[in-house]
Amino acid sequence: MFIIKNIFEKLGVFIEDNTVPIILIALLLIIISFQGAQLIGMASGTDTFVDKNSKLYQDYDHLYLNLFGTESIVMMVEGSDVTDPEILKAFDRAYTSISNIPSVVDVTSPSTVIKQANYQMTGRSKIPDDAATIDAIIDSSMPSSLITDDTHATMYVVVEGTASDSTKEEILREVEISVRQANFPADYNVIVTGDPAFSIAMNEEMNTSMGLLLLLSVLLMVVVLYLVFKHVRWRLLPLPIVLVGIIFTFGAMGFLDIPMSMVSMSAFPVLIGLGIDYAIQFHNRIEEELARGESEEEAIIDTVKHTGPAVLIALIITALGFFSLFTSTVPMIQDFGKLLMIGIIMCFISSLFLGVTILYGFDKLSRYNILGKLGLKRKNDGSNAHSSATIDPEDHDPDFLEKALKGIATFSMKNPVIILAVAGSLCLGGLYVDTMVPIQTDTETFVPQDMPALLELQHMGEILGGDDQLNLIIKTDDNTDPDLLEWIDDFSEHEVEGRSHIDGSSSIVDLVKEANSGTIPDSSAEVAAIYEQLSDSQKETYLEGNNIILLNLNIGNAMSELGLEGIEALGDVVEEDLVWMAPPPGNSVTITGHSMVFVAVISALTSGRSLMTLLGIVLVFCGLLVIYRDFLKAFTPVITMIIVVGWSGGLMYYTGMEYTPMTATLGALILGVGSEYAILMMERYFEERDKGADPELAMQEASVKIGKAIVTSGLTTVFGFSALIASPFSITSNFGVITVMDVVLALLATFVIFPPVIVTLDKYREKRKHYIATHKKNGSKGVLNNIQEASTQ
Q1: What 3 state SS string does 757-780 have?
Q2: Half-sphere exposure of 26 (CA within 13 A, CB side)
Q3: pLDDT of res. 614
Q4: What long-range pairs does 425-430 form, CB within 8 A, spacing at least 24?
Q5: pLDDT band at 384, cuts 50/70/90?
Q6: Which of the residue ranges 36-45, 89-98, 279-288, 360-369 has the most confident prediction, judged by mean pLDDT?
Q7: Are residues 447 and 484 in the same domain?
Q8: Mean per-residue pLDDT, 416-444
Q9: Residue 603 DSSP SS3
Q10: Could you list the residue range(s) of the whole structural domain that residue 121 is in?
Q11: What is the CATH classification number for the domain harbouring 775?
């Protein structure tokens, strides 16, 4: 530690000598960061939940999405009679306009079916004016997916599944314009929905809520700093300092291509709560040094020398706690971890260089009364303007908070057995019931439930039925093999009739049978001839080259009805059916699809959560051991946070909360946030011990001197996390509620659990050292006496 403090002492001298260049560099970095922030993209698709490197996702991406995957923007019309000729003509106008939109793969409309049927009957490709003719065509030719009943009709706009988000948004906007220009009657309801529309709306909602969360977080910080940090001058200064760190983080996010997701957007209120702690610690120590009568230069150098290493160690340990987030197989959790790691580094840099520099400048200016209205006036005794300048304290007596912190520390140290027994019992009980906390995996519950795009998507599902599918990719040497087509037909029929949640199937077999009077030809040549008769779009829907065939099993609303666990079980059933009802030799089947890909989230949440927490504990302990080379200093903060992890699990169980992809990170977050408080307290404790104080007195002094800053930091973190509660995304608001409770628990453990643990272990170590030293001393005396006795004899 001596070497580290020596380095930071030199850094303090550097900061004191280069205030203007530091501010200019900070301004330049802010400008660069704004440029980087323009590069941030939004992400809400499947790849935010499932690792792109996993076999499951690669099967989905390479075998299905790239070869067959499409998405549909759906226009649904509701009214008294959607078979009315005027309504169908409006459909035709919309169809004509939408078909000309670039990047649209296909458009399926009820109007085209009716026009084609009318052309075959009359030779005129137009919508008949006769309602009876239209009804006859609908009864004989219209798919139920296009006209469900007399009050609902649908048009599907097909886009490539691999199209970029910006391309999908452009198509969506053009479709909306085309629908408005089609002039549907005013008493008919027209909605444009589908998965692309929902994803785009969710991205917009994330952008909006991101700004609101940051604004609310800042306002809450202003309140807590004004109320709790009032013992220093310029009490609101830590807030703009940490916001500069947030700006740096936004810039890094853009340059490093880290997308904004429903999870990563929560990192910024969290970072405000964490990062402001660094600014508060430096601010508090500078004021303390100045109050002792040091000059501005001495205060800056001593602050950086003593507080810099402590905050850096806390940052390293926090980062080690967050590092365990990278073990998650959920990409948006990994991105969350990246942002937290980058963010705390940026906030530390901003606090150390910019924060200390601005405080130094403000103090210089206030001495000349330039900023007298903003802070406490400086006074000196006339001997030396630098060496004797001090802060004029309002009151030398300890305030209520200082008395309370000292009282809590004293009580816990006097009753270590009771305190630790109760805390340990609650921890063990919490760790046990934590395994019983349910896991929420219905992704639709994560988004705002009143979001129009979600309501429209759900309404479409209620009318048309769900469109979830299991996609079976069949690899073959010959896609015209009649035996293979027979197997596809038999297997499809078996699954639809034998499995309650499989509502239907579609494959190339349906088109072949339709073209061959309802049967499958006996020879490959006949099948190949039928393939030649099909349109390119029909073949591309189910065939890729001569070696891959797609079989879709429609599972309707199974995702919302069964959840991911049910989908996983359904996939297992289909796998078992493929074993005993195997395809002909030489053919293989892979089950994939959007629904199956999300099954991987289950494993990530169940097994990954415990692994993240365990790895975080190991990393934090090893990190402290490497830094301090002292078992006591490594063990004490970790055991304190393990107790908090146990308390948190129990709290979640007894309050009926559920784990989500975000709350699954709580173990790592507790270790990262809570260990910082314990480390800062421990650093001050040993600083007092080095001055000669006994363990109890050192702990009391540490609780009073740094306790205020820790409470302020903790409350700012709590208020920062509280902003998350206001998020319209339930996944984020629930995370906010739980993290607020966990930070409060970490603060409680720091002042109640940490003191008796470290004092008891430190006293035991001192006694042991004394015993060993005494034993060695007595042993050497005994040997000397024996030698003297022998020589006398």
Answers
A1: HHHHHHHHHHHHHHHHHHHHHHHH
A2: 26
A3: 84
A4: 426/643, 426/646, 426/647, 426/650, 427/642, 427/643, 427/645, 427/646, 427/647, 428/646, 429/646, 429/650, 430/645, 430/646, 430/647, 430/648, 430/649, 430/650, 430/651, 430/653
A5: very low
A6: 89-98
A7: no
A8: 85
A9: helix
A10: 73-193
A11: 1.20.1640.10
pLDDT of residue 764: 87
CB 670 within 8 A of CB 430: no
Quick check: is 219 in a domain? no
Q: Which residue is listed with tokens 């272990």?
A: 761
Please check whether residue 259 is in contact with residue 39, taking contact to mean a CB–CB distance below 8 angstroms: no
pLDDT (mean) for 376-392: 39
Mean pLDDT of 316-334: 80
Are 495 and 577 within 8 A, CB to CB? yes
Which of 193, 212, 236 is the last residue before a domain boundary?
193
DSSP alpha helix (H) spans, 329-399: 331-349, 356-367
Whether residue 682 is contained in a domain is answered as: yes
Burial class (CB in 10 A: 0-12, 13-18, 19+), 195: middle
Please tell me the predicted confidence (pLDDT) of residue 539: 85
> Among residues 162, 193, 224, which one ends one of the domains?
193
Query: Contact 645/424 with Cβ under 8 angstroms?
Result: no
Residue 25 scores a pLDDT above 90: yes
- Answer yes or no: do 695 and 737 share one domain: yes
The mean pLDDT of the chain is 82
Residue 466 phi, psi dihedral angles, 5° rounding: -70, 160
CA gap 553, 492 in Å, rounded: 7
Separation between Cα atoms, residue 207 and residue 46, nearest integer Å: 19
In angstroms, the CA 681 to CA 688 distance is: 11
636 and 759 share one domain = yes
What tokens were used for 524? 């490959």
Terminal Cα-to-Cα distance of the chain (whole angstroms): 53
Contact 708, 401 (CB under 8 A): yes
Residue that wins the pLDDT comparison between 603 and 534: 534
pLDDT tens figures, 518-569: 899 999 999 999 999 888 878 888 888 888 999 988 887 776 677 667 778 8
- Residue with tokens 């073959």, as numbered in its chain: 476
**Residue 750 token pair:** 């720091």
pLDDT over threshold 90, residue 604? no
Is 525 within a domain? yes
Question: How many domains are there within the chain?
Answer: 3
Classify 387 as helix, strand or coil: coil
- Between 744 and 668, the more confident residue is 744
